[in-house]
Structures are given as structure tokens and as C-alpha cells.
């Protein structure tokens, strides 16, 4: 359980850092996923001394805010591609940053990130069981974010 | 003196961000080319003069380390400084990039000043735009930690 705590803290730190530095979005921890109408999902796999998947689930308004802040575009100027691109890149950077913060002496290979619209919000039944997956929820002025980290072994 | 820059990243958003940061940094840019992976970047190099390359690592088709290796071993491109801009920042991966000839390494997430700082150092150019001419000195290489 101690290691699960370390994973959780490191993932949280990585997410705060990436969202503040890259997207100028300030997140607060939340107990559950703050439900939204539409959920967008960006996923990335990592392989190395440990392997697994990181899913980031975004409320639609939060994803718009991220595009707006990263690309300096107004909502009417944004394309579907901009949204997909920004969210995929956020998964890439969060995952890389997390692995580096967790142990910079370990080398991992990251997959090309994937993207899905109208994904299912993580409910209570999908919560942690014995620390795997690690599920963390956040809220922001523009809606919620959840991170789901699943380890699949090395 | 102004420079031709090539940005290699499979994320359109990230290319756009880097391009904006460079244009706002005061770094003198003549042309800014973009490519979505190493293979596309080689195609850009075959028909354009490029002074400095900023490349991601994790890309489809040809990744950044394969691209770096190809550039360093190419008769016409081996002199072009390559700066890696990547989320993959393990000690070994950074060392591998420098051993393969990278001149700088910027870890994502980065701040605008991080890009500017490394860019100026790698091309041996002072911030007033004057060319210092020491771009081949390996001690100019910089890893930026955020």
C-alpha cells in the first residue's frame, strides 16, 4: 500500500505540474468525478521495468479551456483536431513526467497516445481494488478530470 | 543573422506552441518548417536549408532518436544542431540522445524561456542577435530540468 501511495502522490504531482505549466489550468483534488455531459478520453501505454496504461478523462468544457490556453484560440476557432491533439499531448506529457518523477533512473517506452470521444465517466464501481488501478479525481472551474493508472506488470 | 528552424513533432498542437514561443522570444527566424515525424523531417531537409532542428522523441514512422542518428550520419545534415524536446526524460534516455549527437535536451512540460535559453545557447547566438560562432562546442549542450 505504501507504494500505491507513492504512485498516487507522484501522479498527482505530475498532473498538477503539467496542467499549471502547460495549460494554465489550476486543479483541485475531488472525491469523485464531477459528472459532465460529455467525457473525452486520452490514453497512453508505457512499457519498461513496469508497464501499464494511463487514461485521462476530461469534461468537455475543461478540454476547451486547455485548447484555448495552449493554442491561444477562441472556442469558435478550435477544430476537433485541436482538441484531440491537445488532449493526446497532455496524456503524453503527464505520463512521461510521472515516470520521470517516479524514478528518473528507469527508462520507459511510451506508445503514441489514443483518443476517444463520449467515453464513460469512471464510476465508483471502477474504483481502486488493492491499489490497481490508481484512480484520482480533480475538479477545476471548467469541469472535472480523472486519471486512471493501470499497471499490467513488467 | 536569422535562422531557418525545423520543428519535428507528431502533435500539431505542440508544433504550434513551439513555433509561437520561438516567434515571441525575439529569436530571429527566417523560415520555420514543420514535420510530423522523422521521415517527413528528412523530406523537409532534402529541399530546404535548415540551421537548427527541434525534435520530439516519441513519434510514429521514424522516432526522434532514429531521426537524430540519421541526421548525424548524413553527409549534408550532420552539422545541423538538433535539440530534443521530449517528455521522455530518464537519465539514460537523455544520455543516449547526447551520445547520438543531440546538442540540447528540453523536457516537457517546458516554459517559454526554457526553449529560448537552449536555442540561443545551441546556435551560439547572443540574445541581441549577434552570432557567437561557437555552435560546435559540445559544452554548449544543455539539459534543462523543470
Describe the structure.
The complex is a heterodimer of chains A (154) and B (146). In chain A, strands 1, 2, 3, 4, 5, 6 and 7 form a seven-stranded antiparallel β-sheet that branches. The model of chain A has no long low-confidence stretch (mean pLDDT 88). In chain A, helix 1 (2-23) packs across helix 3 and helix 2 packs across helix 3 (80-102). Chain A is of the alpha+beta class. Chain A is 37% helix and 29% strand. Chain A is built from three helices and seven strands; from the N terminus they run αβββααββββ. Chain B is α/β, with parallel strands linked by helices and 146 residues long. Helix content of chain B is 36%, strand content 20%. Chain B is built from five helices and six strands, in the order βαβαβαβαβαβ. Chain B has a six-stranded parallel β-sheet, sandwiched between helices. In chain B, strand 1 (3-8), helix 1 and strand 2 form a beta-alpha-beta unit. The N and C termini of chain B lie far apart (30 Å). The relative contact order of chain B is 0.17. The model of chain B is unreliable at 129-146 (pLDDT under 50). Chains A and B meet through helix 1, helix 2 and helix 3 of A and helix 1 and helix 4 of B.
Output the keywords.
heterodimer, A: 154 residues, 7-stranded antiparallel β-sheet, 7 strands, B: 146 residues, alpha/beta, 6-stranded parallel β-sheet, disordered C terminus
Number of helices of chain A: 3
Order of helices and strands of chain A, N to C? HEEEHHEEEE
Based on secondary structure, the structural category of chain A is: alpha+beta
Overall strand count of chain A:
7
Distance from N terminus to C terminus of chain A (CA atoms, Å) equals 19 Å
Globular, elongated, flat, extended or rod-shaped: what is the shape of chain B? Answer: globular
